Amino acid sequence: MTIRSLSFGLCAAIAGMSMLSTASTAQSIRNHDSNAPVDFSAASMELQDRADRVVLSGGVTAIQAGLTLKANRVTAAYSSNEGVDVNRLDATGGVIITKDDLRATSSSAIYDLDSSLITLIGNVNLVQGNNRLTGGRLVIDLNAGRSTINGGGTSGTTASGGRVTGTFSVPQRKN
């Protein structure tokens, strides 16, 4: 079964959240096809038809066009006008998002398929190659190919004191 049958286009937006402390442009996911089908697996699935959502739990994995989302629990909100169309995925518990050499981890994430945004919240770590960033909140805009990381999150400060921290690799130059 594919979530595109339920539809999926990894993105997230948290409306009304204020940008806290320092913001920094981060690495991004390039050339992602958010209209591609999404395959998923989980230990269990509960359909909450009256609430228009599906709850997946137990080592959830969702894969779309080379982008992988892993979490302990994922709730998929959908509309059922002409079939089932998933508009949003809320992931909690050990969230890991990978694509190519990019790896992002956090406490929770929201993938808003309609706006093509992925928002990671709480203890965010972003690694791409030798580059590393940490912060409280990361927004990945799949349409614009741009990511922004902030020092603070919705649940307070991070271990970095509410600041974005990181290391950028520098190519070796000949003298």
From TrEMBL:
Residues 156-167 have a biased composition (Low complexity). One of its GO terms (biological process) is lipopolysaccharide transport. InterPro entries: LPS_export_LptA (IPR052037), OstA-like_N (IPR005653). One of its GO terms (molecular function) is glycolipid transfer activity. Pfam families: LptD_N. It comes from the Bacteria. Residues 1-23 form the signal peptide. PANTHER family: LIPOPOLYSACCHARIDE EXPORT SYSTEM PROTEIN LPTA (PTHR36504). This is OstA family protein. It comes from Sphingorhabdus wooponensis. The lineage of its organism: Bacteria, Pseudomonadati, Pseudomonadota, Alphaproteobacteria, Sphingomonadales.
